[in-house]
DNA sequence: GGCAAATTGTTTCAGATGAAACGAAATCAT
DNA sequence: ATGATTTCGTTTCATCTGAAACAATTTGCC
């Protein structure tokens, strides 16, 4: 298989965004098989649960920065998670417009159950890539995120 | 900025799919500013118009293979494009279940108008990446697409 | 202090989306 | 040939989604 890196810029610019979208969508769909089909969580719910499971208590304004969720998505996802008893939402005493989100024990337990399965699925996909390809993807993706002006270190480190 | 390539596999599996999704979504959104906000085309409509603008007449079954559109998306997108007079849809004489899609003059003209703007926007983003990053991204993405079992060479070459 | 402006979470409403049902046409088996 | 099965494109229905409107709260300004 041959790759025309950038000798034809026109091709790179038009074809590449499509490749990126296709790859991301397929990957996302594969992972959704786990947390959605099996556990009925939407992508937003899963991301939120993910974040809350490692952090303690997070305010909504801080959450918006660290996720790609806007306030509407956050409101809806958190509402559903709260209905399922996976997280709690409390009005912040400091600023009563804000809400403080926190994972419940049930939420953390569910996360601990799902997480390894999602990891395994992702690992299945990535494992067939060569070490060089993985490294290249990681480097290229970081460069792209930077170019896109994405906030770095979303999940802390 | 530092990149932890893959010394922590756990990180690679969980963090990376998220990065991929974020990058693809942001990129897609940036490009949509052009063909959606300005010209009112959905992503599916744009993809279909893109494909039809360089090919002559394409049957629906062939289209499904070369795009990620399923039959429902194709049906809806083509219907809207036909309503706008950008493409034509004719029942195939060979197999009256199939439909033959073709871009109209108006469709090609609109594509010719939008395309450079989309390219320019994509170029804006990618241009701030180093040559190495671009090459790495292209290589990594191809590897990932292969790992995902994606059909290669979607737009011919 | 008090009122305009800004911020935040939620709701509303129209349009988009996915899964399943459906009807038409072709293919297959006998 | 004929009936069953398969393969299409479309429609339906329920849900999701995004943009704008909204109410509650805080901030800024005087």
UniProtKB/TrEMBL annotation, chains A, B:
Pfam families: MarR_2
Domain HTH marR-type: 13-146
Highest taxon of source: Bacteria
Keywords (A to Z) from UniProt: DNA-binding, Transcription, Transcription regulation
Protein name: HTH-type transcriptional regulator MhqR
Keyword Zinc appears in the UniProt entry: no
Gene Ontology terms for molecular function: DNA binding; DNA-binding transcription factor activity
């Amino acid at each position: 298989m041959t790759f025309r890196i950038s000798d034809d810029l026109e091709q790179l610019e038009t074809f590449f965004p499509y490749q990126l979208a296709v790859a991301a969508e397929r990957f996302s769909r594969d992972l959704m098989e786990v947390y959605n089909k099996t556990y009925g969580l939407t992508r937003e719910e899963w991301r939120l649960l993910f974040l809350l499971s490692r952090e303690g208590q997070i305010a909504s304004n801080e959450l918006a920065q660290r996720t790609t969720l806007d306030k509407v998505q956050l409101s809806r996802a958190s509402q559903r998670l709260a209905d399922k008893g996976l997280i709690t939402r409390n009005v912040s005493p400091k600023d009563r417009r804000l809400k403080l989100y926190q994972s419940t024990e049930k939420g953390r337990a569910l996360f601990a159950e799902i997480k390894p399965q999602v990891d395994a699925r992702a690992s299945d996909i990535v494992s067939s890539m060569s070490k060089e390809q993985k490294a290249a993807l990681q480097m290229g993706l970081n460069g792209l995120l930077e170019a896109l002006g994405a906030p770095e270190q979303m999940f802390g480190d």
